[in-house]
What does this fold into?
Amino acid sequence: MTEPVNGSVRAPVLEVRGLTKAFGALVASKDISLDLRAGEIHALIGPNGAGKSTLIAQIAGELMPDRGEVRLDGQEVTGWSTAARTRAGLARTFQISSLAMEMTVLQNAVLGALGARGKVMRFFAPALGDRALVERAMAALEAVGLQDLAALRTAELSHGQRRQLEVAVALTLAPRAFLMDEPMAGLSASGSRRLMSFLDGLRERAPILLIEHDMDAVFALADRISVLVNGEVIATGSAARIRGDARVQEAYLGEEACAGAGGEGRGEAAP
Amino acid sequence: MGVRRETMVNALLLAGLLAVPLWALWADEPFTITLATRVAILALAGVGLNLALGTGGLVSFGHAVFFGIGGYAMGILAFHAQNYTPLIEAFSIPGTRSMPVIWAVAVLASALAALAIGALSLRTSGVYFIMITLAFGQMFYYFTISWPAYGGEDGMSIYLRNNFPGVNTLVPFNFFAISYTLLAAVLLLVGRLMRAPFGLALSAARQNETRLRAVGIDPYRLRLTAFTLSGAITGLSGALYADLNRFVSPSMFSWQTSGEIMIFVILGGVGRLFGPVAGAALFILLEHFLGGISEYWHIFLGALLLGVVLFARGGLIGLLAGREVAHD
It folds into this structure.
């Protein structure tokens, strides 16, 4: 089923095959297939209502598809719960920050480290006295630049800092793949640039399936882009191919995005 | 301030709860000692509920079940011991008057009940969870009313307080000391548990279940464990309460009892370790002083509860120690 592993094509870490989901007459996902390969950032774009959230929910395990399968590292996880998929190595960040707001920044990161380690039924020794947990959490906070705010209540963080903490918690999980739902949403220009350069380096640790509205970020970062329109993937390919794809232009991109791009055919090929 | 101020308030509460009966001992006021004992025992029931309600966010309106099971564990064991009838005829297992054995049975029985009730109720949440736990409470209530073997509606009296090795439990202060020590020990354990990985994850399950799942932890097992521990603690307090009164009756299972335990938690401060201690103390003080003025003292209690819910969500501990600060 999977593509052969050789020098040019790396094995997919995350694979979606023939995913279909309908809500009554509305088909939100139409036979969607895409994959995420080691070392890449694969961006998923599409206009509002294209079915991005529905697709993400099915990949993350919040929603069961009617047909099709989700594979992680070659293992089928279609029927698994969100928590089980996370334990198997899929870490996600949310479009709207989802954190334990009454806890400190450090406690949120420690919670991630705890989830990664898996031994939650410990009743006596303080979690914050566990050096292995705290070191793992602090390393993740340092990676996103939140180490100085570790003792702050999460509710007191700014919007941008909460986004950073989301990424830090995902880092503590040391996942096989990241699933990031609009990580730049609501960030300032400088915050956005910082996160971009961070994600740029992160792809070598684990590949990222990136849902993002910020087109500059998508075209700057993504190795491959998939375009979702009306529940269907209409194109997958490199940034240049997507820019030049006539159907994509028609369905989604504005005039400015197309300007200057050559008129190549629609790309289904690997990069 | 923060953590240290709350620690100080907690220490003062614990010291105060010990100082009052010590004074009463000196002033020869045995009734005051009994009041302090009630505070310690009811606070223990609240500490149990607070673990589920405060830390876990599980609004159980059926904790009287565990309080009652603890009570009846004591009542049934002591009843057979005082009548010299075997507890289980077939194996001629006798009753017992030993407190430690009674406590062990009470804790085990209420933990098992909590495990079973939790396993069913925790599949729901919100209002449905409240209603299901309430329904279980009512089931036990009506069952004990119609169970003639142990007094039915009238309940049963135990003539002598049960024994504790090396202590004369008939001396009011001694029984207070036993109850107080158990309360302090449970507070210590629950305090540790709240900071341990289990407590951190349980608290996350309350604050943001989606987040917890997204770090690979399923909330169900955490909540079931918390509910079971919570029931066990409230069960222990029920056994002590029955021993204090030397009497058990179906009213221990009533929904009013569930409500009162909840009131201790809310008055004192939901989710605060010493909240139920402050809440139970305030409740008993009100009952004692306002109850002397009018038998309708619950009107004042209601007004106070309304005030706390509307203006002081942190309860008494919140007023004294400020907003909760994350540990360490």
